[in-house]
Amino acid sequence: xxxxxxxxxxxxxxxxxxxxxYGAFLGTMASAEVISSINEQVGSTFFGTHxxxxxxxxxxxxxxxxxxxxxxxxxxxxxxxRPDVIRPLLREEDFAQVPASMQxxxxxxxxxxxxxxxxRVEGFGFNPxxxxxxxxxxxxxxAGRIEDVGAAMDANGVxxxxxxxxxxxxxxxxxxxxxxxxxxxYIDRILANTSYDPTSWPNERG
Length: 206
Known about the structure:
Layout: E1 7-9, H1 22-26, E2 29-31, H2 32-42, H3 52-81, H4 100-107, H5 110-117, H6 138-142, H7 149-152, H8 174-193
Antiparallel strand pairs: 1-2
């Protein structure tokens, strides 16, 4: 089988000279052909104090883009392998395919629910008659959370944190709570700055 297109750990670049090579800087994986090409063009013992400017340029023009691309690929793979997960939606294009597990946290959010009740958003195709009246996620996100510690502090410097829980509350991890909270904050920006419908992207609100 040809090595073309295969991915190899960057440890293939290590040598015994004691001088860092490109594999030490990438911190990720790249094709053998890319690594080989870089080494052939600039050499595996390129880095050193005498070439600080060139090293910085190499990092900016080659290493950083590779790291960004690797992170994006990793994120996309996770989404493809686990499409129905509670995850933060922080870009407009994220709303093109909203995971099913994120639809209720979005639709029950008060500003979106108000638009849905008035027929101004699609609401992911939900029938409003079957939606819970309460935003079941609101008190979960608010539990144990204080926006302004200074204002919540009493004369003795004590801050009381309130937790409200119901037996039928969805069980959410801290990461999932943050994902819903961040998504709702981004929806505030969508509603304030655009006419898009966050429940039927990229259609506009009615």
